[in-house]
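Appendix B. Raw example, untouched.
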Amino acid sequence: MRRAIFPITLAAILAMAGLALAQAPPAGQVGQQNLNERSITGTIESADADLLVINSETGRMYFVLEATTEKPAMLNRGDRVEVFYRPGDAGERDVALRIVAEEPEAVVAEERPRTDARADERAEARELPRTASRVPLLGLLGALSLLGAAGLSLAARS
């Protein structure tokens, strides 16, 4: 029985370490998606298949629309929208990730309460980036492995 304890313990420790590593995202991709996402609200000045122009409090903004951009079926001049976007590199236009149309205040007040799905979506967009590392977890597993090995060694000597 004593000879079977060590291989079983070792297998359990390796299985836990494997599970911890399997859940870790690839290096360099932790929090990348939300890190650069921003949002702005404005009124549509023009919209076509590839470009959206809005007037916001900070001025006129241009957004590239890609095939992956989530948007309402109709984007009309004068509609109020919130654009979630990824800033473009130097000299390039910002890329719209999704566009959420805002309803006029009178319609909003009559049809539904103030807490709506879009408010929840905006709260999720403001979520902090996930930049934490799993290295401390791996260190903890290593320390537990060493403690387990020391305990087994003491048990074998007894």
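End of appendix B.
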